[in-house]
Amino acid sequence: MRRIKRQQDLNDNVKYTLANLNLRDAKSTEANVITVIPAGSKVNVIDAEEDWYEVIYNGLRGFVYNEYLSKTQYTWTDTELRSFPDSASNPVTIVPAKSRVQVLDVNGDWSKVIYDDEEGYIFNVFLSNDGMEPGEYDFTYFDTDMVKFVNDNDIKSPTINLITTNLDNRLTYVFEKGENNQWELLYKWSCTVGKPSTPTITGTFYINGRKPYFGTDTYRVKYATRIKGSYYYHSILFNADGTEIIDDTLGEALSHGCVRLAVENAQWIYDNVLDTTTVVIY
């Protein structure tokens, strides 16, 4: 059983470009190019959304498509950063548990990462999305009885609410703290989650900010509540003006990583769930 000991640092404020990348003046592939950022460059993230990041590079501020930026992961135990993807290769340094690394590439069982401006390889099993060891919960009832799962695992939340999402069943649950600090189920909603090529993150996270809407020149989503980085609970898809629903699909795996909900359900989370609320996604 795992108890939440502290809130993770949720700000993915430094990332690296995976290829030469256009810095644009708006969130569109048709927008003007401010400059081309060379592959391997460090950028500072100002804001993050599902498709686009707002960044600063060499004093220039603009937007980049997030597919070409490094992905954030955490070590859940002290582990060695190695010079090659081989346990016999020389260690570069020791990466402490709960450290944030930027993943550049995955090579079989190894991830090529940057930690503290040093590049090397970490065995994949020692990395997770939340800095916690995978499988620390007892998942016996995760698919069949979510109320029993959250209470048997004594999951903690700094607020009166707790949210869980089951990626296999594509269901999101909202709980409220009841008598004797037991979690009581308020809502159970169908949701759409990340497709295999852009999966929804798994682990334990903490609500960290919200936006009334975001989108591009082709779509808009409403009532976006941030799970971590560019991952949100938000509504189904509207047109770019936000006046008409263009995709109301729920119960599928086809998003860019965010969890889509019916409009009224996304709004409920947006209006009622406070920052720092615990979120568990598996």
Class per helix and strand makeup: mainly beta
What global shape is seen?
globular
Give, in order, the helices and strands. Answer: EEEEEEEEEEEEEHEEEEEEEEEEEEHE
Note the total helix count.
Answer: 2
- Major sheet attributes: 5 strands, antiparallel
Topology-level CATH name of the largest domain: L,D-transpeptidase catalytic domain-like
Percent strand equals: over 45%
Spans of at least 5 consecutive residues with low confidence: 1-11
Brief synopsis:
InterPro entries: Cell_Wall_Dynamics_Protein, LD_TPept_cat_dom, SH3-like_bac-type, Transpep_catalytic_dom. This protein is mainly beta.
Provide key terms for this protein.
L,D-transpeptidase catalytic domain-like, 5-stranded antiparallel β-sheet, 6% helix, globular, 3 domains, 5-stranded mixed β-sheet, SH3 type barrels, 282 residues, mainly beta, 46% strand
Description:
It contains 2 helices and 26 strands. The chain is mainly β and about 280 residues long. The protein has 3 domains: about 15-70, Roll (SH3 type barrels); about 70-130, SH3 Domains (SH3 type barrels, Roll), CATH 2.30.30.40; about 145-280, L,D-transpeptidase catalytic domain-like, CATH 2.40.440. The strands form 8 sheets. It has a 5-stranded antiparallel beta sheet with strand order 12-11-10-7-13, with no helix packed on it. It has a 5-stranded mixed beta sheet with strand order 16-15-14-26-18, covered by helices on one side. Strands 1-4-5-6 form a 4-stranded antiparallel beta sheet, with no helix packed on it. The longest helix has 10 residues, at about 265-270. The protein is globular, with a radius of gyration of 19 Å. The two termini are about 15 Å apart. Mean pLDDT is about 95; it is low at about 1-10. This is SH3b domain-containing protein. InterPro entries: Cell_Wall_Dynamics_Protein, LD_TPept_cat_dom, SH3-like_bac-type, Transpep_catalytic_dom. Pathway: Cell wall biogenesis; peptidoglycan biosynthesis. It comes from Terrisporobacter mayombei. Keywords: Cell shape, Cell wall biogenesis/degradation, Peptidoglycan synthesis, Transferase.
